[in-house]
Amino acid sequence: MVNSLFPPLKVGGLVFDAPLIQAPLSGYSDAPMRRLARRFGASFALCEVFLDQFVLSVVRGSKSRFYLNVKDSDKPAGAQLMGSDSNEFVSAALKLVELGFGLIDLNFACPVKKVVGKNRGGYLLSDPIRAMEIARRVRDALPASVPVTVKLRRSFDDSEKSRKAFWSLLDGLLDVGVDGIAVHGRTVVQRYQGIANWSIIRDVKEHVAVKRNRPEIPVLGCGDLFSAETVITRMRESGVDGVALARGVIGNPWLFQQTRAAMEGRSIPGPPTLAEQKKVIAEHFCDVIELYGERRATTVMRKFGVAYSKLHPDSERVRMAFVACKTPQRWFEILDEFY
For position 82, what pLDDT does the model report? Predict the structure, then answer.
């Protein structure tokens, strides 16, 4: 057994060997990316966020295999839901569990303007009564064996009203019986500007574990985790039970490998060689072809190519090559040319 610096992560009845997960990444964390994350050291990975109405419509069409693809080897798999109506939240959550997802995460954090404008995502931080009703109804509807977790930001904005709403919502979620809470250290209004405030994440952990005496409810931290060293520092400073890596692992699954090594007290591996990058990018692309087919694969993979290019010493030329790529044949030619 590995001698880890941190205990396993427990979420409801699920136990993960390392407190290291992949956060839901809109437009990115499809089945191939989640499998890659697990392979490189993430103990759990969540789907990109699904709109509840989307889940209820796509399950009736041929596209469901692209978005709701769960193999036995993927389990346990988590799905994140977003919406504004508790009835649709419940129906979509039940459908996702039926399709094989073993954890449902409720998104009360998304800062995108069009999402907030439709009373979804981060808007719910400003409406704790509605948010608590959604959480209560989803928790009551699902089997006890399926954990329900919630993604939050530290508040809607920096006003006193928003801060009070956040703590009111947090207490309400604990009363409802959610199984875990993830907190991003920025407000909704900040989006991704400025620096994530981990001192507030520390306050959340203390509130849950000490003031509310609920140490069994894990608190995960998110925000500005771009190196293994930063992850270890933030975990020690905040006392969180785990971390959810997000933007830092798009095009860089090696960050999971590096972070797991640090968590286990081992030497942190260096950056991947070009040969290692080529192998992983090729395998990722082949998995994308298997899921989406050759006609769609290059379009789906292009944004990942742009992200992978950041690790290349000639990043701009590689990025432009991936952007211009239109066929699988050309994709592999780019790998041979630059890697």
Answer: 95
pLDDT in tens, 224-242: 999 999 999 999 999 999 9
- The catalytic residue among 47, 110, 222, 325 is 110
**HSE-up of residue 124 (Cα within 13 Å, Cβ side):** 29
Position 265 pLDDT exceeds 90: yes
The pTM of the full predicted model, rounded to 2 decimals, is: 0.94
The HSE-up count of residue 32 (CA atoms within 13 Å, CB side) is: 23
Confidence of residue 1 (pLDDT cuts 50, 70, 90): very low
Q: Is 110 an active-site residue? A: yes
For the chain, domain boundaries: 9-263, 274-338
Phi, psi of 96 (to 5 degrees): -65, -40
What SS3 class is residue 226? coil
Instruction: Tell me the one-letter amino acid at 146.
Output: V
Euclidean distance between the first and the last CA atom of the chain, given in angstroms as a whole number:
36
CATH 3.20.20.70 is the classification of domain 9-263 = yes
CATH 1.10.1200 fits 274-338, yes or no: yes
Query: How many residues belong to the chain?
Result: 339
Please state the rounded mean pLDDT for residues 58-69.
68
